[in-house]
Amino acid sequence: MPTDIEMKQNLYTSLKELGLTDNEADLYTISLSLGPSTIASLAEHLDMPRPNVYKVIAGLEKYGLAKFSERKKYTRTFMVEPPTTVLEKLRDKKRTVNNLDHTLVGSMPDLLALYHQGETPTKVKIFQGEDEWLKLFFQVIDETKDTISFFGSADAFIDMISWDTELQWIKKRTEKNLHLNALLTQGDDATTLRNTDEEQMRTTRFFKGKLPFVTGFMLYANKVTIWQPKAPLVVLIEDEYVVQMLRSIFDTLWEASKEN
């Protein structure tokens, strides 16, 4: 069972999560223990001048966590709303944030389409942990509204992420109605993918180059991810000029690999 100190700390953290200042959180926690109190008493406990106490109270009133007694103005006492009110407001905030999260995810492809890098610095990130690059892999779907392009070795790529993960990603991609153009080097997994193109919203072509390689890159939105399965690691590049270059290379090789 939590101690009194732990309970007060949890309450304090919750108040800060709602956006209260340190003084407002202190006033709430102190008033919770004191019960209805005069401004003079609160000023003494907070070691704060009375005018400042009124300012802090105004902050708590803004959050709906404070009230005065109905007695006359100069004799009335101050008290706070019960902790259940804090819990309700915390849950309301969580619901609001969740709604905003879903709305933002749905708008992400359009927002990224509006984004123009111009002269801002290139962003390059390296993901080496499995949790990190798998999160990035599924994030591709959240940020895309058009066709995704992949060039490289499907066999090495799937060996890196596993077939289970690949099938989960395909399911999520098809649910969002996103097509994938895959330009792949020859391999067993590449052939398996080719045979399920129609049902998995994919067009697979085989690269006609002679030199084998295990790396691959994925183009989506205004970004490119470069996958190096042997390390393993993933490099994320956010640079519209690099993306334009790689997209031009992909499109040229894509057309050259078209079967007669």
TrEMBL record:
It holds the Pfam family TrmB. InterPro entries: TrmB-like, Tscrpt_reg_TrmB_N, WH-like_DNA-bd_sf, WH_DNA-bd_sf. SUPFAM superfamilies: Winged helix' DNA-binding domain (SSF46785). Residues 15-74 form the Transcription regulator TrmB N-terminal domain. This is Transcription regulator TrmB N-terminal domain-containing protein. The lineage of its organism: Bacteria, Candidatus Magasanikiibacteriota.
